Amino acid sequence: MARKPALTTDKLKDLGAGKLAQLVLEEAERNAGFRRQVKAALAGKSGPEVIAKLIDRRLSGLARAKSFIEWGKARAFADDLRSLTDTLTSELGAAAPGLTIDRLLRFIATHEQVFERVDDSSGRVQDVYYQAITATGDLAQNLAALEADLLPGKIMTALGESTHGYLAEVTEAVAPHLPQDSLARWDADLQDAIAERQAEEAARKPDGWFYSMTSQWAAMRQTIASARGDLDLLIALEAKKQPHMQDYLGIAAQLLEAGRSAEALDWVRKPGRRALGETGSDLSPARVSLEARILEATDERPAAQALRWCCFEATLSADILREHLKQLPDFEDIETEDRAHALALEKAKPEAALQFFLDWPRLDLAAKLIVMHPHRWNGGDWHSLPKAAALLEHDYPLAATILYRALLDDILDRARSKAYRHGAEYLGKLALLAEATDTTRPNEQAGHAAYLAKLKTAHPRKSGFWARVGEGDPAPPQASRSRRPNWDRGDG
Question: Which of 128, 227, 299, 369 is most exposed, with minimal Cβ within 10 Å?
């Protein structure tokens, strides 16, 4: 079959202006979103103000709309919104970034009303709003100094009471591109607004839960503090949060980067994240990795290495072991790696050890572990075992066989009819592996023929599965002799 020619700008130019105009006109008749883009492009020939007026009419219509949009029409609605934002950025953005941002903020401000009237379970509509937020940040880089100085006020006017979180996200997008003086004034305004709102909320009668804008405004202050390079203010605002809401690791990482290692160690060891050796110490790899780097920055290298090894013993984290070995002298790292492998093979939880050997990677040791614990593997781990079996089947067929059998047994034992396709695939793999494994299989493990016979005995009525492997057809439904339902006790 001849391959269809690819569309390129040069090839389209060869069609000529008349033919292209006709094609555009025909598509505009069929596609309302495309028609609006064409009208905006034509309006752009008269200047950015004309495009802005055209966009304003569409935004006003969006703000006035009340009708609910059913799920089946959500895709077309999202496409229409995307054509609106695309028109803004492509036709107006380069010529007038200030005018474009004004209209993007108007668009973003419609989000709460729009979400109330559309079934957006797919997330398509929300994606359009995120793209508009990103575009706002990109355009903020091109604003003149006066326009940039006015932007915080415009954002607060458009989104200052938005509960959805887009206010904080817009702030995060634009703050790195605003003048320092503007950021300082914005922070001061937010500080005053938080104090005033907290006083109002303290005076109100308790009448159940309510959303307070102060948390979102405080998050904005932290964003602004980061943009200003004011680490002390960032930390002070973080310390005001409830303990379970504080970003201990984020603050510790920034303090370490700033060369304030002693403070970083305090933050990484905040309550609930005790030092090595204390009861209840947190040995999560992310926290341990950061604390170890902080310890090294404070000239406590032995303590850092001890912490890493303790974490590896508890979690079998491949990343932590790599960090540990990297700090060891030549040859000593080889001995320690061997000790780590031996520890993993003896681990009480083979599942964690298997993941470690796959991550390292040492497929030979992964295979050895699987054969050491042939009945330990849970076929319900469909998100990880198939990948492990596929990695092992070429060089370590016995280990792969054990995993494929665990997966297949789980599917049939649980009558997971939606997974019969995968089960048939696993049985096919087992048949291919049989020749390589039946001669080396331990005596206590059945050969493939015996295993297959056992499956047929244990699951004779799973016709949906056997039909997929070509050993039967789905049984025809029996005619009911009465109005009572014909309950089938098989797998169906």
Answer: 299
